[in-house]
Each structure stands twice: as structure tokens, then as C-alpha cells.
Amino acid sequence: xxxxxxxxxxxxxxxxxxxxxxxxxxxxxxxxxxxxxxxxxxxxxxxxxxxxxxxxxxxxxxxxxxxxxxxxxxxxxxxxxxxxxxxxxxxxxxxxxxxxxxxxxxxxxxxxxxxxxxxxxxxxxxxxxxxxxxxxxxxxxxxxxxxxxxxxxxxxxxxxxxxxxxxxxxxxxxxxxxxxxxxxxxxxxxxxxxxxxxxxxxxxxxxxxxxxxxxxxxxxxxxxxxxxxxxxxxxxxxxxxxxxxxxxxxxxxxxxxxxxxxxxxxxxxxxxxxxxxxxxxxxxxxxxxxxxxxxxxxxxxxxxxxxxxxxxxxxxxxxxxxxxxxxxxxx
Length: 331
Description:
This is BTB domain-containing protein. It comes from Suillus fuscotomentosus. This protein has helices spanning 5-16, 49-55, 57-63, 88-91, 128-133, 166-178, 209-218, 222-234, 241-245, 248-252, 254-266, 271-285, 292-307, 309-316, and strands at 24-33, 38-47, 73-76, 86-87, 100-101, 119-120, 152-153, 157-165. It is α/β, with parallel strands linked by helices. It has a domain at 236-316. The chain starts with a helix and ends in a 15-residue tail after the last helix.
């Protein structure tokens, strides 16, 4: 049995026994506002601790209540504390493509039943035909008895994930339950085409591979992180590698930077790279990229490794401070 099937089967058993299937309510932001520069519109997703704990040591530590392993996960009472959002600087990833860009003229509608989100009410239902025609005389009870349904109050643990988009978390939870993941194209690839390569949101919950790499790295899910890594790699080409190399996302992850440099070298003689690399170098010399020096160093080292491996090996060889003959004896 795979490691994701066992917790799912445990949930099925809980459902058969009528036990509560939701323990934790995870809140994330879904939109980005330019004026002011904030992430807004918090939304919630629901999860079961059985799955979270079985699939992730990070969440096992988080849900043990011995203290959050990361300051970006915040316990709160589930109220309106974060309704106004937080700044993009606090969010930590201003260019997150899994955030919806808020339109200034969009009318914000508020739900009338926000206060009842944590209450489950079971109600009787009747068919449309029965509602129109009513019961027959034979079916009418002689002494009708009213059955009052008491609201079932469910106590969730409310956790705000301050630096993760709603779309990313939705795809992440689906992965924990099913071990499947679907990725969206990179923004640097341009508008989605009509070639059928774009995931269908009605049958999957696609997310940005960069956003998922960021989340998977945080929660220490190496398999998911690697899947996101190779998805990013497969979407790089001569047209977008320089843009991705200069991004703030690349500056935060050395493995991503190294991979971008490798792709750049593969396309170093392509027309888009030849035309646009001077602009990248000017940004580096103008100190506009915090990882500019790392780009130059990595590019130079990979160039040596590819064209002058012997010279690079000699330069990296340990220096013998004693000389060839070792320590000489006294005369």
C-alpha cells in the first residue's frame, strides 16, 4: 500500500463510523491588491489531521501543538483578524502567480453567513415533484411528528498560512490526498495557448510550479519539491530563461539558480539570449539584482567545467603546504 493510500483509507473508515472528517481549517490569501500593496481575500480549506500527519512531518510537528515549526503558520480564532490582508512584504513573494490580481472596480460582496461557517446543519429534503403536488391522502400521517435537528457544532483548529496562496494550498492538499499534482504554465511563457497543454481547472487544480516548489521546500516534502523543480526546468527555453534567471524567486533558491544557469548555457548562442543578455548584465553591474554575483560566478564555473574541466580541477585541488617532499629534516 502506498504512503498516501493508508491515510485515505483511514478517512473512509472514519466516514463509515460517522466520525468527524475535518479537524483543521487552513486559511490563505487568494488575491493581490496593487493599491495598497497587499494580499487580501482570505479563504479557507479544510483538512483531516490523519492525512496531514501521515504525509508530512512538518504538519505532524505543527499539529502536535508543541509550537509552530515556522512563523508563517499562525494559530488564530477564525475571526476577522486578517480580513484586511497583510502587506506584500510580509507575504514574502510579491510576484506569486497563484494570487489573483484584484481589479479596483470590482465590487466586493460579503457573505451573509460568515459567522456560521463552522456549524453544520443537517436538513430534510424533498423532491421538486413532491413539493408541487404534495403527499397523497394515503401517505399523509395521521399524527405528524416534528423532528427537530440540532446544529452540529464542529470545532476546527484555525491556522493562517501567511505566505501561501489559496490556489497553491488547494493543489497541495489534493496532492496529499491523491498523490497527483497539476501545474500551470510559467508567466514568462506568455499567455496560455490553445494546444491542449494547459490543465483543465474543472478536472484538476493546477498551480504555479514555482509557488509549489516554495511551499514544498518549506514543509520538507522532497518528492513534491522535486516534481515542481523538474516542471520549472521543462518550461524553460531560450525565450524565457533570462527572465526567470533574474527573478526574485530564483534569487532565493540556489538549486533553481544553478538550473537556470545550465539552461542558459544550453541556449547561449540562441538569438533571444544574444539579444537580451546585455540587458541582464547591465542590471547586474547596476546592482539591481541581489543574486547578480551568484549568476556570474555560477556561469563562469559551469563554463570552465564544460570547456576547461582539467584547469578547474587543478584550481580546486587542495594545496600541499609542505611541498612535494614533505617536511625536510635538519641539516
